Fold each of these.
Amino acid sequence: MESYSLLYSSSFRGHLLSQFQRLRSDRSMCDVVLEAGGVAFPCHRALLASSSDYFWALFGETTAERLSASVSLPALMPKGLEIVLDFLYSGWLSLSPSTLPVVLEAARYLQVHTAVSLCELFITDGLCTGTCCGYANLAECHALPDALAAANHTISMEMSTLLRENRKELLELNSQSLVAVLEANEIPGVKEVELVKLALDWLDSNGPLPLLKSNLLLSHLRLGLVSSADLSNLGNSHKAMATPLIRSHLTRALEYHRLGSAQPVRQSKQSSLRAFPNHVLLVGGGASPDWPEQQILTFDIRDGKFSSLKSGLLHRLRNHCVCSVGAFLFVIGGEELMEGVRDGGKSVATATSNEVWRYDPRFECWEKVESMLERRSWFTCCVVKEVIYAIGGQQTRPGAKTQTSAASVEFYDMTIGSWRRGVAMPRPLHGHASTVLGNGVYVSGGIPGNIRGGTRGSSQGGHLDDRGDSSREVLFWDPGVGSKVWEEKAPMAIGRFGHRMVTIRDHIYALLGMYEPFCDIERYDRQADHWTRLQPLTVGSFRYGMAAMPSGAVLLFGGRKWRGGQEVTVRSVLEYNAHRDRWKEIGQLPRPLTGIECTLLPLPN
């Protein structure tokens, strides 16, 4: 068999189309005329049939138009048909915001699928505040799911501007898009009551709607994000709000506001913020450990930018704890610093606190909840199944000037709004760290006893470091099974104080603390009950803030370092990749900060 070669010319197809275009321009060899709006377009039947499913069927063997000299297309506008024909003859589709509707109509009607796809791409690429509503209506009308989803997302993200400048376009929005927008989990800069007013105005502009459609639309509003006063007025503001279904939503929202301390454990979609869920809050801290700030910083992990929370701390605190439950921020205990006057000059008074403050980002307000049973600083807290546990710490007893360490544990029962006693640790600790793995609480390190430099002995577990103060001990307690004792686990390699622990994918990591001779990171495997040393940080750090990301990365904010024989406060933001055991600097704080406590919280933008 003789061999042969198969060669391909990439320019031949373009040349062929250009020749067809020349024949069309010269009206040469045209065998059919398309008519739309009184305008005639001479064309070539073979090219039309090979480029469009519509014309393939129209010029089939059994149709009346098979041999017809002209075909009328009364459903199409001349401009739209002209541009689509130019595309069939050249491969180039001319689009602009003004011609897009007629081109899309012609391409869809004639079943020129490539042209329809290009129109969808044009919509997606051209989305902005001024076009998103009109493009959403076009995409919905012509069943373009990708463009519709993109347009709906743009409307959600630009809603604040649209409400101010393009409200008329919002009122002309198709119902499918409005429902999708009201389902969105993120609508920056817009209060829920504004969305309620928009939905009611839309119903007035597009009604009357069937009861089912009206209820479907309004049921996507998150009435738990509307204040009690506004909820009371909404019930009588519109007849659509008086249906049994929407009345039940209003009732549940009012009941939510009356829950008080139980709000964090009674969250639902109706009370969930429309916001990105993982802002990092940097609570407390300052350039000096002796004078913390009341301002709270927020860190957006998407763009790496910092901003200030409108509502700062009500007191200056250090050595406190923070956590989040049900999208509420809790600030617990610590040392409260107060300015005073002594001997004619300014002085600073310090008092260990047992106060607990709760911040609600929905309404940007602070509320004092029941105080802890004991005053605590240098303690640790963690959350297990929406229950806050406060563990150990230092305290100043009434009438005493010296601080003592505590072994006590207490937990906050939000359903009744009170603190209760938990199982005490085997010995007093302060400066320790904790984390949760599964439903169990792990506590590591710290300084045992009531004073720095406690003596060795069996009463302290025998896991002190070489200097005899910072402990290597690791304790475990499972509150879920009703355990009455803390179990000892394998000790860390290094005695740590003022350090951090974090859980990442079924492992526990112990990070840098104070007074450590090394900068090692350790990882704990609970199955093997064993610690492994990992890549150390090149420069030690302490009194930093730490936040664990859902991705598994750990962020360290600021802190103190030794530089030139002195402690200095730094601005660095470091990221630890646990999977690769690697550190890198990803940014800088707006100013040097130390003594920060961090947690993740959804925040309205």
Amino acid sequence: MFRITVSDDVLESMAMAAIEAYSLGDGRRSVLNGLETFGYLWGSKRVSQEETVFHLEKLSVSISAERTSESVKPHVKAARLKNDVMSRWAPHRTMLGSFHTHPYTSLDEVKKIYGYEFSEPDFDLFHHDDFLWEQSGNNPVNFAMTICKLSRVRESIGGDWLRPNIWQFDVGEFRLWLNVCVGSLDDYGNRCLTGNKRSAAHLELNTRFFNQAGDRFSLADR
């Protein structure tokens, strides 16, 4: 079993990155439902016979990633560069994972195609990220945060669980889903992923976020 705890700081940074990329894109292009974005995660890991526990403490968004509204491709040198900085700034932290977003126009679109799940390109990129696998001790964590705009904002407290690895919550007029996937090696040394299913990956969040009915952001140019 894998238990993945996410600090409030990391969750807040994920939500802000997703909402900014959705609302403003990269500051140069105006896209209907914004752009995807990407980042790397650091923290600590504890391994026992019964379970592996990850604690994610730091997120850094990668501004050199190549973004579109349907995909994001990290710069080949970004992970190593950021990890070199982190090793000097906070050597007690280990690079453990990556994060990206899935922007959608509406809630109906997300539900129709299960947009909160990982895509095959997501799995392929994660599966072949050799540097991330190496740094994490062949136990990397991958997060996808799906985002859409709500036509009606209802009161919500604490979010909802779709599965132990997927949490749904609202911030203003945006709905977000956080999905986690964990990589490991099988008995033959082959890389395998927990995937899109009720899996051995269990998210643990301490937040009790409250979203008011009718609450919307005030971006005059949006």
Amino acid sequence: MDGNSPVVFTQTSHFAASFPIMEEIRRQGKLCDITLKVGDHSFSAHRIVLAAAVPYFHAMFTTDMVECHQKDITMKGIDAIALEALINFVYSGRIAIDHLNVQSLMVGASFLQLTEVRDACADFLSKRLHPQNVLGIKSFADALLSFGLVRAADDFIHEHFSDVSKGDEFLSLEPNALIELIKRDDLRVSSEEQVFEAVMSWVKKDPETRSSSLPSLLVHVRLPLLSPRYLADHVAKEDLIRRSHECRDLVDEARDYHLMPERRSLVKEARTHPRCGSPFIDHIFAVGGLTKSGDSLSTVESYDPTVGRWSMSVPMRMLRSRVGVGVMRGQLYAFGGYNGSVRLSTVEAFNPVESRWKRVPSMHCKRSAVGAASLDDRLYVCGGYDGIASLNSVECYKLEDVEEGVKRPTDNTAVSARVGGNSGRRSGRRRREGEVDEVLRLWQADDGGLEEDEGEEEDGVWEAVALMSKHRSAGGVVAFQGHIYALGGHDGLSIFDSVERYDPLRGQWKSVSPMSSRRCRLGAAALNGRVYACGGYGGSTFLSSVEAYDPRSDRWSAVKPMNVTRSRVALVSGGGCLWAVGGYDGAANLSTMETYDPRANEWTFAASMCAHEGGVGVGILPMS
């Protein structure tokens, strides 16, 4: 070693030893050059220490603000005791949090931008949530933009709704806040009776002023899920309901749902869909997919979670693998796919009451590896592969009795680029008898033929909406909080980590934070206020990893991975859990299924499919 080379000496205890000395100097009132005043209280400190440790003061003292050169500074919007504790924290790195000071400390820490202290206060509160305080804490956290505490409060409210609804905070909610709560899918209730009784308790707390809100509240109580006996003995006999024409109409709709099953599809899906936190009374349907040898299937089977077993259901009319699946108005829709020879534009729907598949107007484009989701009585299909290229086009399907409501803008470029000369043939209108043979001939030429064509076609129409920013084949698509999310996928050259979401009111796609991993052939579903991306293929490896998106923070976070690597996995949420069905592990197609419980943060295996070897599309239907 060169004898003239410098040697760097580092004293690791330097900063830990220095700050206690600075704290003692401050307590002696020496060398202090700033005084912070709150009311009658004054606190001396060192300007350089505050600027170094507190972002609020760093901005104040290092810019041209008036306070930069002032000796005395009056602080507003912060409690004196909290300010003293936070100044002490700056010098010592320690702060005592208890139930008496936690709120004032959290407000002060947020004001001074001491995020670590704010988060420590939020963690303190999240561990002390109670049915009697959780709504107040959530409101407090909302005001401070503490997203983690808001989510913890939401989870607690959903988990303990019955107890929360008996508290004074619940009975003091504003009508709009109550609506936002009872409309949530995530409420964990033993039956819809608990939601109905909570609403009636709220109204009866002040019937003179609150009875006018009952119709708008009752819309979000899922009356068709109540038993006929409870509807007759309790709901229909409520005086406040009997006095309201709108409320009586909702009760009549619920009665008809039980008395006339053939009309169930006319009831809005939001009022008949069981809450995710309720006991799981729905069945998972696995549609189409592949055999061990890779052939496409028309096979359908359903999983009954009450007995934990798969059983055969009515097969589709066509062979379909890489098929998109969506649920609307109690019916299961199968979109496009691949029949072993060509990509398909045809669509069919399964009615569980009639136990049959029927024809649905075809999409404008052929699409396999397509994502689909249902939102506001409309079905959206996004991207896919038409046999030549990956697609960025999106189509929306609605039944002809759907009211328009707010006009939904469309992207004319999308219409002209993708509809072309097929729009007349696939418009979805009823065809005259003389046209039927020609239509079927064209379908058979383009889409490989329908196995059966008898029966009427559903009355619905397809319309093109705005193009996605990416050409996405084998992406994930999910409806969530009024938007359609498109995740990952590929364009034939690149696999994406990007995510974009469609706002149907504005007719626009907007990018959100990308996933932490590139994924195509992934599963996507929404659960408990988050969007989950599961498995897939990353370009060099098949994935078992899982991540979740929180729209409040616009961030993705890692979730415990699945037990098995799964590409082409189908993901669905139900019963408060995620269900990952089938897939491909890099060597073989999979018939296995596993389920994720977010409360335990565990994936566990459930029963394997009995008739599929992966590549399925999945959807959930209520079964009577």
Amino acid sequence: MPSFLSRLQHLHAAAVMADITLPLQAYCASLDESSLPKIVQVCSGVYFQGSVYEMSGSEVCFSTGDLIKVIAIELQSVSCEDVSNNDKFELPIHHTGLFKVVPEQLPYSTVEEILKLRPLDLESSLPFTFTSRTKITIDNFTLSPGKELTVRCIKRLEDGKEYVRCFIPGQQDTSAEVCIPLSTKGEFYECESEECFTLTEIMTSSCLRSRRFRFANTTKLQQPLLFSPVYQVHAIMNLRQNVLKFPSTLEVDVVDITDICTADFVTPFSLTEILSQPDENFPAVLEIIEGPGSCAMFKCNWLSGLKQHNKVIFHKKGSTALVLLSNIKSRKTQQYFLVSQQYGGRFKRRPREFSSVYELYAASVNASGLKVSVTRNCEEVEEEGVPTLSVGEQLEIVRCERMELPKAKDDKEKQTIEALLCYRQADEDDDEEEEGVKREEMYLPMYMQGHFVEVLADNKKYKLKDLGKEFSLPLDVKVVTKDSTLENDPLATANLRIEAAMVEPVIQASFPSSPDQCFDIPSKWLSMTVYFTKECLPWPRDQPPKCHVETVTEVTNIFLYEFRKQATADVAPPPRPPKRDMSSSKSIKKSKKKSKSKAERTVPFKEFNDLTLNCKRRPPAPPTPEAIEVEGPPVVPRKPSTTVTTAGKAQPNTYVQVRDSIKKVPLNTAADMDSDHDYEPVEVFVEVVKKAQENVSFY
């Protein structure tokens, strides 16, 4: 059996002998996406430390003899070559400029030839204009050379011959029409057409891509341009197992060997592509080309086995109903779980807690007849419409309405807000309530904060799938019976919240070492690349094992964040409370500030400043004379002093005598009226206080 290298040499020699080598750029430009995949061999390349040299994740060169299987091409841009000087530049595929077809300088020998070589199909390119450098004679009618002929349509006459109906412009607004047979011979040339094309139209037409163009709306660049598409080529190699991506502008020559190549190529698949495979391909053994790596979304045992080059069995694909659970935050660590609705445990409902009226409203939308109990007293705020609530009161949520706030003095119109209409249940000891009397209605503003707990009269045990059918989410539950099929049930005896329910595409998989212990891979949330191997399944033919599917998968808070970002629609924030009228309080503060400033001006600034010149610590402001005369300062006990008299007694406290000193100051009313210095009594007060200051400065 010939070696692989000798087979490559044989293929390379056959390609060279056939002389069908093309530059990679030209080969990709001639490809039709519907004909893919194609297998090519590199006939001339660059050797650089092996078969393929990789730089920044992009394949930049190949070696002679390499086999490449092109599986897809993706148009990236357009390469433009100036025919006059061979300069090249690139334009984005969505370039907004328009281009005109440059007429070919080569002559056409017949009218039929010029029709067949139109850049578009004949019906789309009509009308178009051409000229003849030779004289044309049709029956008794002769056309002189140089006349412009505009083709209007093609006709088939009674004699079975096909003709083109042409319009001939004449002098002084005269014109004529003539029918010219397609078989007419001569020397015909194209005339420039006024029709314009975009880059997208040019690249999607094989006829247009072979023509030359010039810019239609500019006079700066009128040289003919040749357009060539620049693709990103998606390919695989028989020596590598991952998908290569490289530009079609690599300077290598290739030859198409699709029909004669017998090499085996590994076709990589993503998990999304695995879902599109037919059911007949499963179960199968696959090898992991690229694993999920350090996936931060899942915390499970089977994740560590999904590594590169490891084998995995894909039993089947499909969709399964999953529930997203989270444990109550009272635990030390917050945990989240993706749980299949086939989970065998039993749940009981737990009352939900609400911290605002808006949360009550959101819960009542999904579940009518919601009843709650008040768990904390709430005082009434009349201007904001907040009522009084007491602990133990039960409320039944009815609907959302608008309520009027009490009208303020400065408001011309009453303000209305959104509120929640509730029925407040009367006390059982109220004997005055008669049967048939309506329950008390009350309104709770949407912005009101409070503390409520759901009232439940249900003590039934539910399966997980039944909870989703009978109740709306989110829902607080507790596991009262664990799943007996699980060795260690992470949900056992846990207080949980059902966050959401979903239907996810999954792939049921297991490892060859334990093919009956299966798990579901959520293909939407896990990224990995695999390929189908030809290995046999690790069980007898037509005797598949009885699979036990893991029903609980722990996920991280990153998964919860991504899930909510994709699944939750934008919800408007809860309403804010109305702004309070602060004008009255501002006026009160302003008046207090004014009165305070007047009181400070009672003592002249210079004298008041002198009080603190010799003080180590600045004392508080002294009281006014009027306040001293009415009440007097309190008597402060004197601390023991280091200076003692000969009698062994402390010196008398002079500060206590302030009140008496001020009383002994004579106040002459007449003198006050005649004197220009009406602050003389204050000077006396300042002197007395200054002496007192010296005595108490060391307290």
